[in-house]
């Protein structure tokens, strides 16, 4: 009985009532799921992560970077954790996602070699 009540609540949350479901002949769980889930815009980096044949560790790292969730020293500082902010690779600037992957001289050299 609880499952039936819960299913009824799910239908109502999706915007359907009993009459709507009864009248629909082509109603599917997929349609209800998408209605419950709502609209989500696709992110530009999706194809890099989903169609990537790389090592799972690389894919995980790429996902963390794309979402801004990589543990860098600037992010630790925002949490109140005091640490030396200098980049470990070049010691020229503060460590951040932008610096580590794009601005650091080591990253620049690595990107050049990879793109050749």
- Amount of helix: 55-70%
- Look at the structure and give the mean pLDDT: 82
Strand content: under 5%
What value does the Rg take, in angstroms? 24 Å
The structural class is: mainly alpha
Total beta strand runs:
0
Outline: elongated
The helix/strand series, from N terminus to C terminus, equals: HHHHHHHH
**Sheet with the most strands?**
none
Low-confidence sequence ranges: none
Q: State the helix count.
A: 8
Alpha-carbon distance between the two ends: 64 Å
Please describe what this structure looks like.
The termini are far apart. With 116 residues, the chain is an all-alpha fold. It is built from eight helices and no strands.
């Amino acid at each position: 009985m609880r499952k039936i009540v819960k299913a009824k609540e799910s239908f109502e949350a999706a915007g359907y009532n009993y009459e709507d479901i009864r009248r629909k002949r082509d109603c599917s769980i997929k349609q209800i799921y998408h209605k419950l889930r709502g609209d989500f815009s696709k992110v530009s980096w999706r194809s890099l992560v989903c169609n990537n044949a790389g090592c799972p560790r690389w894919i995980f790292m790429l996902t963390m970077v794309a979402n801004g969730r990589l543990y860098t020293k600037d992010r630790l500082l925002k949490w109140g954790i005091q640490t030396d902010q200098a980049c470990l690779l070049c010691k020229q600037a503060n460590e951040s996602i932008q610096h580590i992957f794009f601005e650091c001289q080591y990253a620049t050299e690595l990107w050049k070699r990879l793109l050749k």
